[in-house]
Every structure is written in C-alpha cells, then in structure tokens.
Amino acid sequence: MKNIFLAIVCLLGLNLFAQNDAQPKSGPSPTVNIGKPQYFELVNGLKVMVVENHKLPRVAFHLTLDNPPYLEGNKKGVANLTSALMGSGSETITKAAFDEEIDFLGADIHFSNSGASASGLSKYSKRILELMAEGALHTVFTQTEFDKEKSKLIESLKATEKSVPGVSRRVENLLSYGKSHPFGEFMTEATINNITLNDVILNYNTYFVPENAYLVVVGDVDFHTLKPQIETLFGPWLKASAPNNTYTSPKDLQYTQIAFVDMPNAVQSEISVMNPALLKMSDKDYFAVIVANQILGGDYNSYLMSNLREKHGWTYGAGSNLSASKYPTRFIAYSQVRNAVTDSAVVETLNEIKRIRTQKVTDTELKNVKASYIGQFVMDTEKPQAIAGYALRIKTQQLPEDFYENYIKNINAVTAEDVQRVANQYFHPETARILVVGKGEEILPSLEKLKIPIFYFDKYGAPTEKPNYKRAVPTGATAKSVIEKYIEAIGGEKALRNVKSIVTISSGTIQGAPVELTSKTTASHKQMREIKVMGMSMMKQVVNDKIAYVIQQGQRKEITGEDLKQMRQRAVPFDELELLNQTGLTLEGIEVYNDADTYILKDEHSKYYYDVKSGLKVAETKSAEMGGQQLSLTTSFSDYREINGIKIPYVTNLNIGMEILLTTTDVKINENIPDAEFE
Q1: CATH class held by domain 6-14+471-678
Q2: pTM over 0.85
Q3: What number does CATH give the domain 249-372+401-457?
Q4: Of the candidates 549, 566, 515, the residue with the CA atom closest to the CA atom of residue 678
C-alpha cells in the first residue's frame, strides 16, 4: 500500500505556515474593570466567592479543591479513576437520567477528584447548581462503572505507549521531580490493575473534602438569592481536611548533561532543556519572569521560534515555559525536530537561552511582547472562567486584592534589565538536563560530537546501557526476497495482480476536525484521492494516463515533469508489485521499529520497514519539501485484515511532528470505477 497522506500534509501545511508576522502597533494601555467577588464561608470550611455579571444571561460555577499534591504509589491512577467515576449517578438519580437532564438544560457539567464545574443559562442556575452538587457530593461508586472506566484507562494508556511525545512527557516529569514526588510518578498497566473500587472510594473520602475548597460563581445571579441555595446544598458537606504531605524539592544538576531515551520508531526527536525553579505569583520577580519567558519561547515571534523554525526550518514549533506555582516547578525549553538536525537544535536552543541571559532585549521586542501579553489579558477579562480564575488565585496564591487591577501596570513596568536579571536567575543552561527522545541509531553519533555527557534511560525513565544497533542480516536476504515475503504475506503475487481496482475510505481527525479520505486506484495507473473536512472537499488529487493535477481550495495546479512521472508510477493498488523488479532498491539492514526487528529497504525517495517475522510492511518514510522546509513523512501501518483473500492495513498513522490517525471504514476490491472519476 502506498503513502496516502501527502495530500493531507499539504492541507496541514496551509494551516501551519499561514502565519501573520506583522505586529500591531500598540496604543495606550487599556483600562480593565474586573468584578469584585462577594465572599462568605461555610462552617465546614468551603469558601464561596460570587461575582455578579449581568451582561449575558449565563452563569458559571467552579468548585476547586486546593489540596497539596500527594503520592499514589503502586496504585497510581486512582485519582484518574475517581475523576472518571464522579457524576456517574447518585442515590436519588441514575447516570442516564442525570445526563439526560443536563442535555435538556443545555448545561455543561464536569467532575474531577479536584473539583467540579458547571455552566449554562442563568434561568436554570438553581437546577444546574443542584446537579453539580449532587454529582460532586453524592456520587455512588459502582463496580460496573469502575470496571468499565478501568478498562478504558488501560486501553488509553496502551494507545500512548509507543507515542514519542508521550514517552518524552513521562520521562521529563520523572527526571525533573523523581519517582518519589507526586509530579514525577506515572501510571502503568500494573499500577492501574492494583486499584480496587474500595481504593477509589477511599481516595474520594480522603481528598474530596471542604477544608481547602473554593466555590467561585460568575454570571447573571443575585448574591442574596444564591447564598441560601449554596448553604443548603453544600452546608451538609462533612467538615474535614486532606493530608498535608511535604516532598523534597528538586535540585540543579552539577553540570549540563544529556538524558537520552531511544525510540526506534521516532521520525523526529523530542528535545527538552530543563532546570528546577521556584516561582510564585506573589514573588516580586513574577512579572519580569513571565515577560522573559514570552521573549524566549512564549509566542510565535520568540527567540526559539525565530531561530529553530523561521531561520533554520527545523520544526513546526518551539517554545519555553515557566509557570508560577505554590509548589516546586521547572523551567523548560522544548522543540520537536528532524532526526538529522537534533544535535544542531540542541546547540541553538542553548544559544538562545544564553542570549537572553547575556544580551538585553531590544526596546521594540520588549514593547511588542508587552502589547501581546496585555492584549491577551484584556480579552481574557471578558471570559467568566478567567474572572473565576482571578478570584480563586487571589485567595489560593495569597495575592493582593488589587493584583489584577494592577496587572497591566506591572507588565509595563518590566525593563530590559529586569528581563536579563531574571533570565540569569531562573534559566540555567550551565546545569541543564537536556532530554532527547528519538531514534538513537540516526542521532546519537552527532549528539556524541557535542561533548556533553550522555546518560541513557529506557522509556520509563530507568537508567540503562547505551543501545547496541548492530543487527546481522540473515544470509541470502535481499531487497527482492523481502518484497517477495511481503507479497506472499498479504495474499500472494497472483492474487495481487488480479486486483484491477481498489477503493478505500478512511476517517479520522485533523486539529480536532473530522476528516474523510477517499482513495480510488486502478492497475492501469489511474488514481483519485479526495480529502473532505467536516463534509467539505478541501483537496482532490487526480492522475490518469495523460495528466495529473491537484485542486486545493478551488485552485487547480497541473503536475508535470518528474513529479508527474513519479505520481503515475506510484498510482497502483500495491507498490510492492512495482518495487519487485525496481533497480536502485537496496536492503540497508535491520532496525527496531515499534519494538520489533524490521528489514530496512531504501530507494532514491523512500525508506520501507518490513517486519522480519511476519513479512508485513509496518511503515514507510518519504522525503518532501513544504514551505521551504525539508520534511520526513512517516506512515505506519497496522491492524491488517483480510478482504477478498488480501490483507489490507486498516489503521494508518502519519507522523510529521504531529500524529494523524486514520482508520479505514470501507474497502472495495475490483469494483467498476467509471473513467470520469479520473478526469
């Protein structure tokens, strides 16, 4: 089967590269009016803040439990299951009836082990609040729902086990905080299987308590009417406090070092440059730090984006983050780059961190960043959830009551000297841990040339030895024999040559939008592919015995020359029948892909991976240019199913720095396709 995604990549390219570099001219600082909450506290410790806002007939409720973090140990995942089970019915209302009433009211209600939220029309505010309180305080935890949610959590975990970004996030947290810290532990199938229904009930009873709880209400409500409703619903909540555990804060390393995790299926490297940090919103440096981070990696025009993406074209995105917290946190600069430039991206990331520490930001850059930050802040003040967050943080972060009234003034007060000073205080390239998760066989030789000490870890963060990539190719194995084994594995050469046409329909999502891909191909080198997003045709590609073209956003582009020749050559139901006798196709060796040994075949434009044991093709990589950048497009294949005696992969996953998963929903072999489809 051929790579069916080049058209999708082009479609994505439109979104990813259509950016506006122009900076708006800043005007005078706006004045914002932030509603002041009315406050009261229940006997059980619940703090209530009400911000009346009658602009729109809507209301939002936010219940937050500001408990200290806690370790779950060998039952990591119990908090996730508690969250999943909350709101699944109570002693007075079933889950089905609960969900049905929420839909009828047009409300939105969510629960977690750390709180709940609800929103909807203010005329239904009383009932919405009642439903939220019912789900939060009176959930009935049943074995049936527990078993269902436990299975879902395990399946979700399995789906991410081979995800390079997922492994990177897990190891980032573990190495930053340690496994004995709540922020460093992670779920496994074993820890989830250790959890029982009683563990969930114990977790709920221990931590879902009112001592550190805050209920923030924003919207079209009357304080004096709402107050007795809250007292009636939440007053019976039993007074209790959650355990207050303390943990050792992470420390800086003694010297810069690389932590490397080998992921043989990685087509791009995940890079994270990290160091521990302590930053609270109440700190005098808070505003200088958030401005410094914005300059380094906080927006599209940041140092990291300008270097790694705009100057070098190595990545779709690069950034940095340092969030304020009551608890130990970290500074992190991150990017995802092509294997071939991993070492260079590490060097340039460190250079940009050093740059903000040694060179003052220009007046123009500082002015633009302030304008961007202030503009976003002003827009946020129109959102009820933002107002709720402001009211909550003033209490939980021990901020002055006028913190947000003075927000713009404090942003504007940050100087270039402040930015340089806090960059030296909080960004530490000289003692940073550089986590690289990627395909070691391709990137380790160049990383080793950086002369930065490298330590090796497995995908669960455990120390390990340097990978050994030498694999002996069996005697007699050739590119042709690998192709022949694949052809036999999916049905045999005779069966494949009897396929005169194949139609596949696949579905998935791109950037949250539903996508359908239709592909129609004949043995006579004719092909039509069409992408529909939310039911609308976004791109169509056609090749026949005379011409080829692409229609994109109503614009038709003719394909000519070498591109036309390649398109026509690959417009067949099964590539391998063409590859069988292709000159220039070589067997490069054996590599591990998705934890299995695979034969690697290469030609001028592509690299193919065939499972050594089954013979099935598990992936292929192609090179393509887009927006002036050279991209490596890898498509993996799995879930082979037999259709008319031929095995077809039903799951395909494209990785171009983001993963696009498509599932085949229909396959038709030797269906008559009118010639008009290819005109």
Answers
A1: mainly beta
A2: no
A3: 3.30.830.10
A4: 549
